[in-house]
Amino acid sequence: DIDWWCAQFETEPVFSSMNPKGSPEYIEGKNYGKAQTFAQLRAKSMPRLIPAELVGRINEAALSLNVSPQLYFYLALRTFLAINSGNEDVTVATTGARRATLMQKKCGMTLAHMVSWRSCIDSKNTSFRDALLKLSISQKDIYRHISVHMSDYEKVKRERFNVPDDAIYKTIVFTYQPYFNVENTGLRFKATHVNVGFTPYPLYMNVMPMDNSGDLWADYIYGVGYFLPENIEKFHAFMLKFIEEGLHSPEKTVSDLA
User: Fold this and answer.
1) pLDDT digits over 35-48, tens only?
2) Biggest alpha carbon distance in the chain?
3) Residue 175 β-bridge partners
4) 81 burial class (0-12, 13-18, 19+ CB within 10 angstroms)?
5) Which residues pair with residue 95 across a beta bridge?
6) Angstrom distances, CA of residue 248 to CA of 34, 240, 244
7) Is 198 helix (H, G, I), strand (E, B) or coil?
């Protein structure tokens, strides 16, 4: 597994952000494109709706392509980041469960790693549909190679690019909690957004249901002083429009839809 991760870092990743390059609130703007190190940040939560009607069409389209619905949101995210940075090489943090040892299983443990999801797509020459298929391959590759010791994973970055262990190339963590249809089970639930007040990353984006209405919510937990809410609003509007048009015209290139 570590050999596969070494191949992902043959070249140094490009630092990307939801903030436009050169914007006044940009994180140490002079270092745009370089690895940054962050401590825990004071945070606010900004939940935004993804309507059930759109969620249903995403699920249907994903099933027909045999890909995860998560990829529709990720494709929108990486496209937006590529536009901001002017570089198609985009890195976002994601999580995956690694194989636990027998002792850990007996203790009821599972192990999840937060790793880099790096993708490079030629937006001008890749259709919306083909981009999803390409991302599906990279997503599955991450899951296949997730059983790696994080100390070895960090060592690759440290030795190749002379960065500290806690340096990161991504300002966004993206997780997706799939929607389960509980309409016929009698199960009803309603969750509440809770702002915990801090985040270890500049922006944590979590897509999940808050009830059984079919709606999904994108909860943006952002570091105060690192992101302006209007930039997150701009992305959310972009994401909904981009996915909507991609579902309607999947043969169009990513850049045409953006």
Assistant:
1) 666 666 788 899 99
2) 55
3) 206
4) buried
5) 114
6) 37, 12, 6
7) strand
